[in-house]
Amino acid sequence: MKRLSVDTIISKIKNQEIFHAVAEDYSFTLKIDNYVHYVCGAVHDGHQFRKELWENCLHTEYERWYEEDPCTKQMVQSHPIVIAGCDSRFEYDLNRDPENAVFDTAWGKELWKTPLSEQEKSKSLAKHSAFYEVVHALIETLEKIHGHCIVYDMHSYNWQRWDREVPTWNLGTSNIDNDRFGNFVESWRKNLASIELPHAIKQTAKINDTFQGNGFFLKYITNTFENTLVLATEIAKIYCEEYQQIIFPEVVDVVEVRLKTLIPNHALTFQRTFKN
């Protein structure tokens, strides 16, 4: 993996070069092993938090981890195209629009002892903007090559704080063209429901049960590119002990192994349908 500027990353994408890169400021990673018709994204995988913000932050390291999506990059790391955030959403949230990406409060609690300066906000928003410049170049190139593209937008959520039974997997579809892509949403839901997890973890997959797919990553791609489907895919944090900050690697491994087969098979059906 090489440390590259955003301009260099975009140039390599447009030239359809194979490469693994981390952004020059270490804010995101991108690997491209092959210019296939699907992308895996993990925008909330990151946990880095700029040191100059540490003393001013009212949330603990654990509180930040609790609201992030640990291991979501690992679950899809074997696929040909993977883009993932490295920074914590508490610095700036890649899944929110630029106007709301830097929080003043987070999950009901003030985030900063003193409000951030405009200079501090600008540093974070520049990274947000650079990420979307790369996303734009990537999807534009894939649509140019294949005509259509599908993005598996990986997230996780804290299931233990709900006061009702919630699914192992949730698909958020309120902002996609369900008339056009509904069959692929349902087939993806069935694929996720078929995954058998260790420790007799109950396996369910539902649509718009806990989250509706209102993230900016999905909205940006959907509103910008006519022929790309984004599947906002949330796994409940059954792969960790969310109140003790303990990861269960054997569960993460099973998810990764199963997605290694399910994602390319699902994406291939998508491509064949629209190619014809």
From TrEMBL:
One Pfam family here: FGase
InterPro entries noted in UniProt: N-FG_amidohydro
Protein name: N-formylglutamate amidohydrolase
Species assigned in the record: Winogradskyella maritima
